[in-house]
Automatic annotation (TrEMBL):
Main enzyme class: hydrolase
Transmembrane segments annotated in the record for this chain: none
Protein name: Aminopeptidase N
Native organism taxonomy: Bacteria, Pseudomonadati, Pseudomonadota, Alphaproteobacteria, Hyphomicrobiales
Matches recorded under Pfam families: DUF3458, DUF3458_C, Peptidase_M1, Peptidase_M1_N
Source organism of the structure: Stappia sediminis
Cofactor(s) needed for function: Zn(2+)
Keywords of the record: Aminopeptidase, Hydrolase, Metal-binding, Metalloprotease, Protease, Zinc
Family matches, as InterPro entries: Aminopeptidase_N-like_N, Aminopeptidase_N-like_N_sf, PepN_Ig-like_sf, Peptidase_M1, Peptidase_M1_dom, Peptidase_M1_pepN, Peptidase_M1_pepN_C, Peptidase_M1_pepN_C_sf
Family classification: Belongs to the peptidase M1 family.
Domain Peptidase M1 alanyl aminopeptidase C-terminal residues, every copy: 553-876
EC number: 3.4.11.2
Reactions it catalyzes: Release of an N-terminal amino acid, Xaa-|-Yaa- from a peptide, amide or arylamide. Xaa is preferably Ala, but may be most amino acids including Pro (slow action). When a terminal hydrophobic residue is followed by a prolyl residue, the two may be released as an intact Xaa-Pro dipeptide
Keyword NADP: no
Length: 876
């Protein structure tokens, strides 16, 4: 029952061309008047009912072409407004509603955060402001008059350009009128009003348009906006160079708010951000925070073309803007930083978030065909796998044809609301490439596995690769078709160089990319003069699982010598994962865990290799996370055994390499003031990764070193690394360090979030009690999504052993939190509940306990649609 299906899509029967809003703000009684210029659609019969969406609305007035409607002429409820027989000629509907921003704890529609009025309308929040055709294919030109008490809200911001400001005569109120000339869907509407500080900037576009930039923050935070402003300007320049896209208004404003359901929102000309993705200074933000801010600023800015100028026809097409925009922000960061390091980080994220999603009950296609609640589809699959799909198009078409396809997309669809099919057509037309089978990447859920067997005939000088592919069954999709899988490859020789070869047969090849299309391919490569080691899926050319018969020795050869840095990293991960899987089995069976000496040696070598980028060395030294090991194991997972295997390996490396790691650690100290640039961040990352090993070496001197590291840190990256190691390795001084950190940062909520997360992700059995106690700490707030994610979210997703406790107490705690939160903020509650997504892969006892907790949630009366949807799909 219920739900929305892609195949039921119908164009809207009416069009809304203009929206004139007059919004008179007050904390508990905001009055909204919306004048909508409405026109019957070309294919709509005269007299067809007009049905507008609403959500929890209070209607206080309704005029049609200036005349009041009698109650026979309309039907209104909080969730719907119907005019059964509207005029057949264009008409103006003027709707008045009254809102209570203070009571809006869902943080959708108009709400207040720390006294600042702000809005969030994607996906369906505009209908909480006024009745509307609240769907992305209804594009209108908006004017917004915002009125508020001057003292309460000296700053009044809307979409587009500022047209007029003034005082309301005889009152303590003032107003501003904003006009956005670009037709847009309602989900991109925004307003902000409050007492905020403005950090100014300016940008001149390639064709000479002067754009006034503004970042608005709470007073006192002005000096934490420099990095965000710099990132914005670099993003604007990059989009001109990389995609030929210029900014199109005279103003670009960003507002940071502290209560926000997700990361940020790309409203036209008025981006609204979670302050976590704006505010940074060396004392409170880590290198990772700086990188995230740069990426999110870029992402939201890039939406101006991919999302806003060209939007989605319906919400099933969400990946059209999200996957594409993630791809664009990844490319931006790759250009601004190190491309291989960025690629490795992105793939790590994909494997740790998207692969488990794709392997569990919440799996769905990049373009879903059915949803109960669209907000539950802002997922790693739509975003990150969606970006991989765009990347594969580029890999298959090559740089030039890809750019030509993008140009065509902008040319054809600017100003429109379109589909994935229309997007693919642009690449087809620009390249003549057949993308029919490729389109399955949008349709079929589940991570494909490719299996490879290799054989070298030294007499004939022929190397053979036998590929087979399979796509696992996923909810509602039992049978899968074979897919197009681009495999970038090289044959690596003894000395590490890419070997020459003559011909490749058995598969379509383009440059160094094999295009797998059939269930099986026997690929024959001739003219190979020595036994090669195949380096497959270079740069992670497709989001698949690769199972190969390559030996550990050969993988370690690739780890040491592959010309593709991504595959060097991947080779080490592959070896570590297989060693950790074996270790887990031993731990589970109560046997001694054996450590792979070759792996330890290889890690030691990478650590010391000064020809490599420190950031790369840091990534190479980081062992697969517990969740990654669990995913690799796939079923009957015992998280305690996984942690035991991982801890054992880490301790062994620390003991064997302790002396050399300590020397290296000492040599990496950076003199001079902190700078967030990628090179310095890389050195810190390596040094802090070494610190993790030293913290677990068991040597006295090393514990002292960790305490020193924390105490002497002059930036948050190092301080947090020190604190994390003290707490997680349970070293003497951990409690003092927690207290000192709290003391230092107690007035900075984002820094306190890190303090909460460190404690929530401690794998010790005490963690749950600590987390429970912290929910009563004055620094914690149940109503603030950042605090909640930092504590309970981090516990559920970042503490494998304690969330998945064998007594079920971790599950119960998270389920209780979800139930309590659901009444206030269903979106954040649903997101938290999705931490259960891998429950079926657990061993039987934990599986049963997780299922009980999920059932308890699913069975509660009056659940939100958001939580109900996640609970029910998880149990399917
Ligand atoms: N488009 C928004 C996400 C909206 C989420 C709605 N539940 C941010 C982004 O992807 O850029
Ligand atoms: Zn986005």
């Amino acid at each position: 029952a219920g739900g929305v299906r892609l195949e039921d899509y119908q164009p809207a029967p009416y069009t809304i061309d203009r929206v004139d809003l007059n919004i008179r703000l007050a904390p508990k009684a905001t009055r909204v008047s919306a004048r909508l210029a409405i026109r019957r659609g070309d294919n709509t019969a005269p007299g067809t009912a007009l049905v507008l969406d609403g959500d929890d609305l209070k209607l206080t007035g309704l005029l049609l072409d200036g005349s009041a409607l009698t109650f026979q002429d309309y039907e209104a409820s909080p969730n719907r407004l119907e005019i059964p027989a509207p005029p057949s000629e264009p008409f103006v509907l003027e709707i008045s509603t009254e809102l209570d921003p203070d009571a809006n704890t869902k943080l959708m529609g108009l709400y207040r955060s720390q006294g600042t009025y702000c809005t969030q309308c994607e996906a369906q929040g505009f209908r909480r402001i006024t009745y509307f055709l609240d769907r992305p294919d209804v594009l209108a030109v908006y004017s917004t008059r915002i009125e508020a008490r001057k003292g309460e809200a000296p700053v009044l911001l809307g979409n587009g350009n500022l047209i007029e400001t003034g005082d309301v005569a005889g009152t303590d109120r003032h107003f501003a009128i904003w006009h956005d000339p670009h037709p847009k869907p309602s989900y991109l509407f925004a307003l902000v009003a409050g007492d905020l500080a403005r950090v100014p900037g300016e940008f001149t576009t390639a064709s000479g348009r002067e754009v006034e930039l503004g970042i608005y923050v709470e007073h006192g935070n002005e000096d934490q906006c420099g990095w965000a402003m710099d990132s914005l300007k670099r993003s604007m320049r990059w989009d001109e160079k990389a995609f030929g896209r210029e900014y199109d208004l005279d103003v670009f404003n960003i507002v940071a708010v502290s209560d926000f359901n997700m990361g940020a929102m790309e409203n036209k000309g008025l981006n609204i951000f979670n302050d976590k993705y704006i505010l940074a200074d060396p004392d409170t933000a880590t290198d990772q925070d700086y990188a995230n801010i740069e990426a999110v600023i870029a992402h939201e800015y890039f939406h101006n073309w991919t999302g806003n100028r060209i939007t989605c026809r319906d919400w099933f097409q969400l990946c059209l803007k999200e996957g594409l925009t993630v791809f664009r922000d990844q490319e931006f960061s790759a250009d601004e930083r190190s491309r291989p390091v960025k690629r490795i980080s992105d793939v790590r994220l994909l494997k740790s978030h998207q692969f488990p999603e794709d392997a569990g009950p919440l799996a769905h296609p990049v373009r879903p065909r059915f949803y109960q609640e669209i907000n539950n589809f802002y997922t790693a699959t739509v975003y990150e796998k969606g970006a991989e799909v765009v990347r594969m198009i580029k890999t298959l078409l090559g740089e030039q044809a890809f750019r030509a396809g993008m140009d065509l997309f902008f040319e054809r669809h600017d100003g429109g609301a379109t589909t994935v099919e229309a997007f693919l057509d642009c690449f087809r037309d620009a390249s003549n490439e057949d993308l029919d089978q490729f389109a399955l990447w949008y349709e079929q859920a589940g991570t494909p596995t490719i299996t490879v067997k290799s054989d070298y005939d030294s007499k004939a000088k022929v190397f053979t690769l036998s590929f087979s592919q399979s796509v696992p069954p996923t909810p509602r999709q039992a049978d899968k078709k074979p897919m197009t899988i681009p495999v970038r490859f090289a044959l690596v020789g003894e000395d590490g160089s890419d070997l020459a070869y003559e011909t490749v047969s058995g598969v379509e090849v383009k440059g160094d990319v094999l295009k797998l299309q059939a269930p099986e391919h026997k690929v024959t490569i001739s003219g190979v003069n020595e036994r090669p080691i195949p380096s497959l899926l270079r740069g992670f050319s497709a989001p698949v699982i690769l199972e190969s018969d390559i030996s550990e020795e050969d993988y370690l050869h690739l780890a040491a010598r592959d010309g593709d840095p991504f595959n060097r990293w991947q080779a080490l991960q592959t070896v570590a994962l297989s060693s950790l899987t074996a270790g887990m089995e031993a731990a589970r069976d109560g046997a001694a865990i054996e450590v792979d000496g070759l792996l330890v040696h290889a890690l030691g070598t990478v650590a010391e290799d000064e020809s490599l980028d420190p950031a790369f060395r840091a990534l190479a030294l980081q062992l697969p996370a517990e969740a990654d090991i669990a995913r690799e194991i796939g079923s009957d997972v015992d998280p305690d055994a996984v942690a035991a295997a991982r801890n054992h390996l880490r301790r062994t490396i620390a003991r064997e390499k302790g002396a050399s790691f300590a020397r290296l650690y000492e040599s990496l100290e950076i003199d001079g003031p902190y700078s967030p640039d990628a090179a310095s961040a890389g050195v810190r990352a390596l040094r802090n990764t070494l610190l993790e090993y030293l913290a677990h070496s068991g040597a006295d001197g090393d514990a002292e070193r960790v305490r020193d590291h924390f105490a002497k840190a002059d930036n948050m990256t190092d301080r947090l690394a020190g604190l994390t190691q003290l707490v997680h390795a349970r070293l003497e001084g951990a409690e003092d360090a927690l207290a000192a950190y709290y003391e230092r940062h107690s007035t900075h909520p984002l820094a306190i979030d890190k303090w909460l997360t460190v404690q929530a992700t401690d794998g010790h059995p005490e963690a749950l009690e600590k987390v429970r106690a912290l929910t009563a700490h004055p620094a914690f707030s149940f109503a603030n999504p950042n605090r909640l994610r930092a504590l309970v979210g981090a516990f559920a997703t970042g503490n494998q052993t304690q969330f998945n406790r064998a007594d079920g107490a971790g599950f119960d705690f998270v389920a209780d939190t979800v139930l309590a939160l659901d009444e206030k903020n269903p979106q954040v509650a649903a997101r938290l509940l999705s931490a259960f997504r891998s429950w079926r892969a657990l061993e039987a006892t934990r599986r049963k306990l997780a299922e009980n907790a999920l059932r308890r949630v699913a069975e509660k009366a009056d659940l939100s649609r958001d939580v109900k949807d996640i609970a029910e799909r998880s149990l399917q």
